Amino acid sequence: MPTTTIDGHVIHVDDEGFMTEYTEWSEPLGKALAAQIGIEMSDEHWKAIRFLRTDFADQGETATLRRVSVLGGIPTKQLFVLFPQKPAKKMAYVAGLPKPHGCV
């Protein structure tokens, strides 16, 4: 598995740059990952990211946008505002999780 260094953290990533080791992630690293894709984290952003991380630990896969909206309580339109264009993919990236199934 390839590695990369982000904000002084050496992390394992896949060929698309998504983290592959759940335990290597931290909130400071999440903030650095968000900055790399032009997102400045707010409390609303963290609500989505924390839901994704908890849900991944419970379910074993990255939640879909619908799951984040329904179970996480964040309307889909708001997810597009927080993570423009490709919210599911961007949320997974910032959360240090695999790209959700169905994302291209």
From TrEMBL:
Its main location: cytoplasm. The keyword Cytoplasm applies. It holds the Pfam family DsrC. The keyword Cytoplasm applies. InterPro entries: DsrC-like_C, DsrC-like_dom_sf, DsrC-like_N, DsrC/TusE. Belongs to the DsrC/TusE family. This is TusE/DsrC/DsvC family sulfur relay protein. Keywords: Cytoplasm. It is found in: Cytoplasm.
